[in-house]
Amino acid sequence: MHRKLFTSRRSAVLSVCALSSVLLLGGCGSNSDSGSSGSSASPAASPSASSASSATASPSASVESREYTHLMGTITLEGKPERIVAPYLEDALVTLGITPAAKWAYGDLVQEYLEPYIKDVPKLDFTDGLNKEALVGTDPDLIVLYTPDLAAEGAYDQFSQIAPTYVFQDATVSWKDTLNVIGDMTGTSDKADAAIAEYDSKVADAKEKLQPYVEGKTFAVIRAKPKEIQLMDGTYYSGPVLYADLGLTPHKLVKEWSWDYAQALSLEKLPELDADYLFILVQGEQSRPLLEEFQSSALWQSLPAVKAGHAYEMPSNYWMASGAIANSLKIDDVVRTLVP
């Protein structure tokens, strides 16, 4: 079993929403095209939540013993965690030079863009949700959950019996905050700082290259799922990179209708999406028939972006992820697509 690195106590009164397997797949969509300890990884692409839980080390804690207060309570870490399980936060671990003890998977679906770094890390299958038995098998000494949904219905108490369990409010909203929290807990804050600085430099360089080609233009991202086409929001995953970091102008329908949450886009509403540029994400090949149905319609063919040849399919694997590596890859895609 894991080393005894912690004590954990739950906050007195806290209510969290019920666990939903649908949320896991819906939030982590990707194109679908294993035991390692916390050894170091070498991310080639890594440069690197308002909703991230704040991790504050207690002033009275020594370097070896640190307390972290989070959404569900407080954990105490003694020493440096070495076997870390942080499902769907592997981008942050790899950026920090940490190989996770297990990686997120949904059946055969994995985060393909991270496979060069964690191909041999065993999968933690989320098809039926996250359960205690699966976690025990990974022998972690730190568990990090990106949303309280994963800790609902008594799961937090069960997980805390295995290893100290830190719960974010929503780790996907601000990858920088998330990276800083995990960096502090793992003693890799210097790598977090370096990754953020490198990313910010990349953003500045990309904005300079893009400026002559994007001024006065509007942008939108649509996502094909098996049963619906969505207009993506400006808050999660690709939205903050495009609209906040790179300063691209979101189409008015994004700003007025889908800014906070992705919305189902019907054929009837499609003509309102007269953006100059469209980025298209496909959640697995099972989503392609519905997309092709849209694309074969006269309404789609009449969209300004389509008529101008400015509708581009992008890899949903990392466009529907958040982190230094994923976001850096998105920037590469945008610059490569828009700059002649």
TrEMBL record:
Gene Ontology cellular component annotations, sorted alphabetically: outer membrane-bounded periplasmic space
Position of the signal peptide: 1-26
Name used for this protein in its record: ABC transporter substrate-binding protein
SUPFAM superfamilies: Helical backbone' metal receptor
Compartments it resides in: Cell envelope
Gene3D superfamilies, sorted: Nitrogenase molybdenum iron protein domain (3.40.50.1980)
Pfam families, A to Z: Peripla_BP_2 (PF01497)
Family note: Belongs to the bacterial solute-binding protein 8 family.
Example of a GO biological process term: iron coordination entity transport
Organism: Cohnella fermenti
